[in-house]
Amino acid sequence: QILFYLLTYTYSTQFRLHVLKSSSFLQLRRAGGWSPMVTDRDPWLQVDLRDQMKVTAVATQGCSISSDWVSRYLLLYSDTGQVWKQYRQEDGGGTFVGNVNSDDVIPNKLSHSMRTRFLRFVPVDWNPSNWLGLRVEVYGCSYKSDVADFDGRSSLLYRFNQKSMSTVKDVITLRFKSRQAEGVLLHGEGQRGDYITLELHRGKLAFYLNLGEFFLFSSSCVAVTVGSLLDDQHWHSVIIERFNKQVNLTVDSHTQHFQTQGEGDSLEVDYELSFGGIPLPGKPGTFLRKNFHGCMENLYYNGINIIDLAKRRKPQIYSVGKVTFSCSQPQLVACTFLSSSSSFLSLPVASAIMGGFSIRFQFRTWNPDGLLLSTQLSPEHQRLELLISNSRLLLTLHNFGQQLEASAGHRVNDGLWHSVSLDTRSLQITLTLDNEAASTIEQWEQLEARGSFYFGGCPPTGFQTPTLAFQGCIRLIAINSQPVNLNHIQQGLLGNYNELQFDTCNIRDRCLPNLCEHGGRCWQSWTSFSCDCSGTGYSGATCHKSIYESSCEAYKLIGSSSGFYSIDPDGSGPLGPALVYCNMTEERVWTVLTHNITAPVRVQGSSLQKPHIMMLNYSASAKQLRTIITGSEQCQQEVVYNCRKSRLFNTKDGRPLSWWVDQGGERRSYWGGFLPGVQQCSCSLEENCIDMNYFCNCDADIDTWANDTGVLSYKDHLPMSHIVIGDTNRTGSEAIYRIGPLRCYGDKSIWNAASFYQESSSLLFPTLRAELAFDISFYFKTTANSGVFLEIMGHKDFIRVELSSPSVVTFSFDVGNGPAVLSVKSHLPLNDRQWHYVRAERNVKEASLQVNQLPLRFLDAPADGHRHLRLSGQLFVGGTASQQRGFLGCIRTLTFNGVTFDLEERAKMVPGVSSGCPGYCSSSSSLCHNSGKCIEKSSGYTCDCSQSAFGGPTCKEVSFDRESSMTFTFQEPFSVMQNRSSQASSARRESISRAREDVAFTFITSQSPALLLTVNTFSQQYVAVILTHNGSLQIWYHLQTHRTPDVFSPILSSLADGQIHRIRIHREGKDLYVQIDQDIHKKYTLSSDAELILIRSLTLGKVISKSYHPEVLLAGSKGFIGCLSSVQFNNVAPLKAALLNRGSSLVTIRGPLMQSNCGALADSITSKNLRGNTHPQPSQAKDGKESNDADSVVTAVVFIAVCILAVVTRRLYLRQAHRSNHSIKEKEHPHNVETGNRTELHLQNSVRDNMKEYYI
Prior knowledge:
membrane; 10% helix; Neurexin-related_CASP; repeat; disulfide bond
């Protein structure tokens, strides 16, 4: 219903107050309206609803018979009219959309209702051609409440009818408001150790609950915390719901779900529950906490209205101290400093009786730096500054060119209120923060302030300081013990100000809820937040993107060899990475997941009554295992069971004597090699059991050793989680078993493809949930000039990814802030019938678009815009809902938030779309090796080796030299900051240092010492990576020529061991991250965050320059003997560029060149190590040989068929083949170093078409 109101206020420069006894002329569809004077400063319209109401919606209209309207506005609310708070929708947006003319009514429904008496409409934008005008209506209903006021020394006790109250279900609801950051709201405890406590702590709600555990309130008790900034003098709602151990704790709109501690299911509280505090601080086992100081309303405990009982003086309620039933808390009015560059408040110097001056005030902020107070002093040429520096308070006296300093506090930018006192009324300056000891600066004469006191910043005409202005809130200002009335400042009666917001502390906790995904740590300033993703396995603005590949198959496609790898089977999904072994020595790529029981286990003395039970713990979680198994083509697990008088099934009633349990907890009694549900072993299937009367060798129950070995291969039951042995308790009875690792091969998602033949055809999938973050990735190939890859719509929101022209991919979306568009343009056409990679991501911080290895494009999200993307329609793949601009071509590996869509299965049911994608280059087999590019031809394929360090028909031949050095000279002064597009770099990362390097390379050597890589600049800076005399790795950073270099040794063991090693180095300012292979991750702090200025060159191998440290020179003089490959420096592949640009003036190669088998060396070493670890059985080796022979025959037949087909069709396709060859030649020849420089490489993301260059 419409809520009627009587009083309307507006403030202007002269602080004019209009009291309107009738508001009818402000209501919608009536003549009139509110329009302030053009000279009014920061006008607003205030509405008094006469009583507290529940408001659910507002509506606006411009002034009648005019061109005055408001197009955007803020909505503030207050229940006292003194302290205000800005209303924000659920997605964080604080600005309401208003009118575009003076006639239309624009309603805005509130995402969550608010209970208030006063409303303020604050115009933000209005008719640019005229002026602002407003008519409003407020919608809602009346709101009744029971209120209790606690003064910090009072409480209400609810006493039970019996000695104790035991409950398995509790529901407690209340609303509270407070200006204190500490205080107990609820407490109860029992003698057996149960307790329940709800308290304010540092402005957050902490909830303690224990059921039957006897560590009453010990240090091991951990609180569940919800909410933030709850000491803002505004109402907050709390709901506690408990059933047995399961608890939901909700504060406002934020909910925590958790399971409580303790062994019981019921909460047993003795005698009473106390609300508002703990009345007896000396009571044994209670929290010695500060009591609550504030108001509560509508306090219900399991349906009982506690405040109503207290008001009616019922005997169940006992009141301690003074508890009143109206909320009369005094309001502390604050003002908000909005801008870090132009906000300030100037106040005149008040006279002091004893000379000098004193200042007191309170502040709260998130920013680690900012100017709080400054003033000029007498005698002249002196100045006093109080500022926040590196999260501490710093007081500086500028005295005739000298600086005297005093500091106080630690992390004063924690968002809490802090009290500051500054006193110069003696021969020292005293700084006091909160309750800490004072810091002082001694002085020789009495200091007097002259001019004004400047809070938060300085006016443009005043003295300037390089410090940022303060962004935050200030209240309770007192100068020489005289309180400052902020209303007088707002009215223009006192001082001056700029970029201030009065009557409100507009602070927000941007880390609540934490929008950093996958355990990323949230850091915030006044205007934004950032995510620390270190150690999470994810990257990006909100830690959304996994830094690992999704499978071993994916690692092989980027050129990796056998070894331990972290794989992320659901990509950006919630599961996280798992450590696996990738066996790439066979044609199939095997993913091996080990468990904790690797050695054979001997079992004796077990029976069905007391069986032997062994649980297997894998290197991945149950959900990760299920995802890996589901995404694999085939999985298996070997079970070796040796027995002597130990049966498996040989019982009269058919009950199994031993069994195993699958990952779902189901008992399984079939053994390796047989179908599920049949109690048999592999010997029965092969018809070679010892006794053919039984289905297992062990069931023959003989006194000699027998064996039942087989392979479990039914994917839905894998892996084995438990094994149970129950027949080894007879004389001479025993068993020995060994459970092999889980082994899977094939990635069903990589080559899951669909071909689109009609523009009107598309694949439809259910709607997607992508409110706060999503990423979409896929591969495509086409000959069409344009087409929509995918689209999904909501009421207004949408996502669309399309090929908008032959060389441009466009990603567009709308989350309620208007359409946003990102485009990436390729210098080569993308409709060339080759596979191209696309990845689009959107989160609350930014959106990005990646196409192949082209530079990423970024777009920042609006600072105060809508966050939630609301989609309701189906996902259209290969087209749109309008069946226009459909895509013609192939799409494969379509993934959304880590979930891969089964395009092949869906394509079987849609006309105009077929499963798979025709063509030689579509298969998962590697036709072109070492990152060679497979080029489709009309009758076969060819390998483009221009982007590989290898040559020949299939990019297998290589020509490098031993004991050579290669120097890559940068063509122009090179800024290492170019890790992102130039459009996005400088403006969007204010908090990130410009100094940044990404270095990665792979090497094999048996030599030490050795120099692997050096980078030097024209300013005598350098970075060096060496192996010392004992083979350990050292990283040298010499960033400041007047200081000694920083030296780090991430690993002390020798890397000159003839094994292949992968090194990754990443620097951000002073932070240095080092990764060695897959298992060593180190972080170091440099002594300087200086940037590498004007990089001269990068050298691999021997160096002769004298500008290095002697230890580096020693390693450099020995050079490097071995294999270097996949060298990456920022967005440059120097070794690759050198090999593709022989004769270039930018590349210097010393020593002769000769052919090398470096790639085979790396593979053979890895294969040798793997064989040494796995001990394959002869039968397996034989099978592998037979498989290889069969593959050779198939390959030969296919090759002959292709040759015959090529001869027959040569004339028909001569012209087309000529054009195709000409295009290929164009790709092969015009290679230059600049192209190499522009290829973007990312340390955290393995390159899809990885370069695998080898250097000997």
